[in-house]
Write a structure and sequence with these properties.
nine-stranded mixed sheet, 29 strands, 26% strand, adenine deaminase, Metal-dep_hydrolase_composite, EC 3.5.4.2, hydrolase
Amino acid sequence: MSNQFLVWSKVELRRHQAVILGELAPTMVLKNATYLNTARHCWTKANIWIYDNRIVYVGDNMPQETNGTEMVELDGKYVVPGYIEPHAHPFQLYNPQTLGDYASFRGTTTFICDNLKLFLSTPITKALSLMEDMNKLPYTYYWWCRFDSQSELLNEDSLFSLSNVKKMLSSPYVIQGGELTSWPKVIQGDDNLLHYMRETRRAGKRVEGHLPGASEKTLTQMALLGVDCDHEAMTGEEAMMRLNLGYTTSLRYSSIRPDLRQILREMKEIGATHFDRVIFTTDGSTPAFYEDGVTDTMISIALEEGIDPIDAYNMASYNIARYYGKEHILGMVAPGRVAHLNILDSVQHPSPDSVLAKGQWIKRNGKAVKESTSFPWNDYGMGPLDLNWDLTLKDFQFSSLAGIEMVNSVITKPYHISLNPTAEKLDEDHDECFFMLVDKKGKWRVNTLLKGFATGVSGFASSYSSTGDILLIGKSKRDMLAAFNRIKEMKGGIALVENGSVVSAIRLPISGGMSPLAVEELIEEEKKLTSELRKRGYAFEDPIYSLLFFSSTHLPYIRITQLGLYDVKKKVILFPSIMR
């Protein structure tokens, strides 16, 4: 396949034709398979011919020429399209390549990915090359185009300039704009963001919303302004409202919103019978959430809730491909489509027995066939984090009266600091900790207090954050400094320190936020870290998402950002960052 994304050359197209004419043998034939016939909404028995990475024939016939063809008998087996993740955040400790390896074993072979990390970590030219070169792997990667940082950055305007957005939108790998976390600005008259939305429409691409708690009036306005889909329905009623307004509605099952089962039940109770405009997403869950499956888990839940199996599989494949205008190459078992295929023992068991991705065996008869791949991140400006500067105890000065209080994993509110923040250590009989955001280049810092994170965390540091800057949390300034020094040694990562010793750590040497480890190994590291944090009083669902969202201004009510402590509702800096 030529490097132009999923466009076959004339020579390749003539070879595919030659297979049908009996002049060339197919690479593989799946014999006597019962496959999901999406066009007819039924299960059909057929032989499926594959040449290289493409399905070239589906029907009753066998090829005339079979020299070198791999014949695979599938009588009694079921074949469905490879699953598609339409809303991937592929930088949640894992990276796009390791996520692809892990998820493909479970049947998900196409990913539509957030590119915020690329905007923040590497020049646009390198980001565009990366998005193209990822598709040399056996999986399919499409991308979004972010319009803003969902935080308050010192260089926001230069990063998310019209020029950069238009360069992204011109890429064939980018198929949507968004997710539109700054929709309140659009509602309130921000014509800059509206212009980006119009540029996305002009490029013939979708606009993805992010509209939690939005009223019918707000949803209607955003539909008029250009939003096509939203994944933030938290009840069956909210999902149905989005459908009523013409949205494609993405149902979420994630580490911070694991409520798909309840939403489906409520939708059915309200009267949902057709799911053609409903799709599934795991919304960038953290590694441990994927321990039992990825998209296949969502299909299982749908089947258990009595959703028609064809609807359940379509919500994970065809509906997504059609929404993005890619049904001619993805989401169907039909001639001309990429050979992303899952082979099932039973329709009721969506975790596949065997997986083909671009015509290559990823998994066969329950066992991995393909060895884990690697990706040269350094070539794209996303190498180890070089913190070539030092923190000292002089940086640990706290004098603010306004602090941040956690409501849950991701929502925070302001609170009035009443204790003395000048002490070197805080007592463990309360849940207030020292809290800092430090520039990854060492130029500035923001110091405040954090209430509700934990009672017994002594020193905790992370280069994993929404902006790539360094988060420090803890009761002890010395242990916070020791935790920082540990992530500096690791060239990026997360470290929990107590009495000067490292209790738990995760190395994240890819741009300070991603691990090269297989997801299976990363799951164990995350589980250990979470367990140690829980022992020390962390009581919410997901500490990794807490780290990610401390700086994210699309959530209420107060955030720690590069500009300083930020009041989201009033849109003002409560106190600014301090130059070091």
